[in-house]
Amino acid sequence: MSSNSIHKAISKRLQKAIDHFTVNGKLPVEVEWKPYQIDPGTEPNGEEFNAYCKRRWGGSGWTQHLQSEGVKNGARFSNWKWWPNTLRGHQWIMYGKEKHGLDTNKANEVLFRALYEQGENLSDTETLIRLAENTLPEVDVEDLRDYITKDKGAARVMQEIDRGRRAFGIQGVPFFVVGATGLATPYAFSGAQASESFLEVFEELSEKLKD
């Protein structure tokens, strides 16, 4: 799951690059999201959006450009009410992947839509359970509730975050690692990349695999 709102717009740009790259029968591209928390100090049950922005930055004016850019990429922020503590959301994604094979890209789409377009609080366990019921009809509700409320996946989420810091020096997001089978060294880069930037990396990796 994205740890901040810019990931929603970036995910749209990334998907645009993937669609452009694969449309001509080129190498398939698989996307896997890894956890990261920008502000672990966010209240465990989340915070009302405007109140959080006022407390941390003095206001929410900084989101105006973000929302404007998001519209250009098909990423709307039409009903953004909460600033969640993302730990439970990360556990939700991990549970869906391990128990039901839910693709992390699909999982993040569900959470992005819920947070930014449906006004949901992703720190709320019952909200996450409802989203799971809508996404995974076969989900065991009580098992998921137990998993989240008892923080059964929390330690592993933090291990994943620590692994990213140690392996790639990740200190913030968005951050991307792009590799391919047969290549020892992946590309690692940070920042709000344009679709063209992703496409250039895909093309370069593709050419290297031909060598």
Automatic annotation (TrEMBL):
Molecular-function GO term, any one: oxidoreductase activity
SUPFAM superfamilies: Thioredoxin-like
InterPro entries: DSBA-like_thioredoxin_dom, Thioredoxin-like_sf
Gene3D superfamilies hit by this protein: Glutaredoxin
One Pfam family in the UniProt entry: DSBA
Residue ranges occupied by any DSBA-like thioredoxin domain in the UniProt entry: 11-199
PANTHER family: GLUTATHIONE S-TRANSFERASE KAPPA (PTHR13887), THIOREDOXIN SUPERFAMILY PROTEIN (PTHR13887:SF41)
Name of protein: DSBA-like thioredoxin domain-containing protein
Source organism of the structure: Phaeodactylum tricornutum (strain CCAP 1055/1)
